[in-house]
Each structure stands twice: as structure tokens, then as C-alpha cells.
Write a structure and sequence with these properties.
Layout (H helix, E strand, L loop, with lengths): L6 E2 L6 H16 L5 H9 L1 H5 L22 H22 L3 H5 L8 E5 L5 E5 L7 H15 L3 H4 L1 H4 L12 E2 L5 E2 L8 H11 L1
Parallel strand pairs: 1-2
Antiparallel strand pairs: 2-3, 4-5
Helix pairs in contact: 1-6, 4-6
Length: 200
């Protein structure tokens, strides 16, 4: 399989800066009120920022809220709430290690490898049309986890102490076309990122 070098981040952005935007967007998603206005603000705000590091032709444009057939407030409420439940389960699994996390990821999760001017290596999430809402958020989780795997164990209690909203209640597809399956990565967690990086 042909492999391309990782993408160089622009404007002196570090891989940690990029991963931090994914974490901010993910935390914002988990506290999102389940309504159309809040979802639109998240897609056009934190999510757009976190998915704006890809190649020019693949960079995120502000996304529109998913519009189920015959959209109603209840459709949006259910979509957001169920997607948050999926992502919370994946975050909980990530605290136990990569084996548990990959069981809850979709088969393809859109991320690409990146590097910065200071020698750092990591991953960023991509936004593509027709992605499920839960998969968009899981891309952010995968990018953050692969860049900062140790954070998900060492600092998990404070990192993910996120309250629920007040309202009631897919493999990694590399931009070059290469695909890496997280299901092939084994413990220890600190080796997970290195294993993926060697395959890219």
C-alpha cells in the first residue's frame, strides 16, 4: 500500500494545538443542548475549527445540521441525545484502553496524520458530507486519543468530568487513501500511537 508523508500543519500550529481543538469541540458536543440551534452553532463553531487543518480540498466548510426526513424538534433532540450517548460510551471505554475504545468506534473514522514545524506528530479529524453526527464526534475523539493517548488514562477523571446537558432526555481513513484499522492496535496504550504512526 502506497503511503504519503503526514500533512504539515500551517502557520506554526503545533500538533498539540490541533488536538486541543478536537478536545474542546468534543467536550462542547457532550454538553450540547439537543436542539437545532445549538447543533448548528456547534457545527459552525468548535467542530468547524477542529476539522479545518486538513488539505485545502478537504478542509471543513461550516456544516449544516443533519436534517432527517420530516425534521421536527423531536428528531433533532433524539439525534443529538443518542449521538451524545454513543460518544460518552466511547469516552468511557477510552479510559480503559485502546482495546475497549475500538470496540465502540465505527469501522471508518476520518482522521489524517499531521506533523508540525517543531517535530511533533499527531492526528486531526476530517469533516466529510453525509457523516453521521456521532461519527463526526468520534473522529474528534480518535484524533485526540491518537495524539494524546496517555491523557485518557492519567488525567481521565478531570478531563472527562463533563455534566450532561440540562435538557431531558467509522477504521481510520487516511486522506491519501490508505486505511489503518484501530482493531489491529494492541496495548500498551503508549505504544498504540507509535504503532499507528509507523503504519502511515
Amino acid at each position: 500500500m502506497l503511503r504519503r508523508p503526514s500533512l504539515a500543519l500551517r502557520d506554526h500550529v503545533t500538533v498539540h494545538d490541533a488536538a486541543d481543538t478536537a478536545r474542546v469541540a468534543l467536550r462542547a458536543f457532550l454538553t450540547l443542548e439537543p436542539d437545532k440551534h445549538a447543533l448548528a452553532e456547534w457545527l459552525g463553531g468548535p467542530y468547524h475549527v477542529a476539522t479545518s487543518f486538513g488539505p485545502r480540498h478537504m478542509r471543513s466548510q461550516p456544516s449544516s445540521p443533519p436534517t432527517p426526513h420530516h425534521t421536527t424538534p423531536m428528531n433533532i433532540h433524539d439525534l443529538v441525545s443518542m449521538s451524545q450517548d454513543v460518544v460518552r460510551a466511547a469516552v468511557d471505554a477510552s479510559r480503559l484502553g485502546v482495546d475497549e475504545l475500538v470496540e465502540l468506534l465505527p469501522e471508518l473514522v476520518k482522521v489524517i496524520p499531521v506533523h508540525d514545524a517543531f517535530g511533533g506528530h499527531g492526528f486531526v479529524a476530517l469533516d466529510e458530507p453525509r457523516m453521521r453526527l456521532a461519527d463526526r464526534a468520534l473522529c474528534l475523539l480518535a484524533a485526540d486519543y491518537l495524539t494524546h493517548p496517555d491523557d485518557f488514562v492519567a488525567n481521565a477523571d478531570t478531563l472527562w468530568a463533563i455534566p450532561r446537558p440540562s435538557s431531558p432526555v467509522s477504521c481510520i481513513d487516511i486522506a491519501s487513501g490508505a486505511a489503518v484499522s484501530l482493531r489491529r492496535i494492541v496495548r500498551p496504550i503508549s505504544a498504540a500511537r507509535a504503532r499507528v504512526l509507523r503504519r502511515l
